[in-house]
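Might I ask for a little of your time on a matter of protein folding? The record follows directly beneath this note:
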Amino acid sequence: MPLVKFRQFGDRPVPQPIKITVPGWAGSKAPRADGSHEQPWHCIPFSESARYGLELVYPYDIELCVTTRDGKVQLGADWGAPPESMPVWPPFRTFGDDYYSYQLSLDLDVPAGFAVRTEPHPRYFTDPTYSTPLAVPALIRSEWWPMIFFCIFRAPPPGVTHVFRKDEPFIAFAILPADPDLTLEPMDPETAAQREMRSRRLAANRDALAEGTRWTSDTQTIFDGTYRNLARAARTKGKAADAED
């Protein structure tokens, strides 16, 4: 795993691995059981993706409400006098008519060959109020860019308010290979046939693989733990293989 180093200015919480909060933005503690309402944390692909990175929480006691009025972004907060530790104040600025910026006062240093990508925090996708700020994705090649980060947010549509509250996470960072050196091609017939055979075996044995995990939510959606059980088995197998090396 790459080593990520950071420096920052001002009295702010440090970056941290993304925390799945239940109860919280990832849902309530409703169990995977008949009659429960489905929750974001129930979905393993989502929860694993949500944990794949770092987060920052909003550090100020001042609540910021962002709206759009007459086609222009409005930043609603009474910032007062600047703190001694903050040379840039207020930390939020409009960025054209449709965006706004935030001075993070943060520098992330990642190893050669890696880069930092800003992303919306996963709670944006689970928020029923639509009030979570929408960070714009950006790739920062911090290997040769040692500058202090700022980030850009998309202004909310009319009638929606984005809210920054103290200690709530508002942006995520993923550490990725700096260049998407991918090659895309159709599967060769042998690989396609093998994967099709594996998928048929999974389908044929799904009842056994999901034994004891099938449930129906209060929206009459049927769930089972096939993927969850296979993920657990794959992790166990991977750990065993690492121990043998």
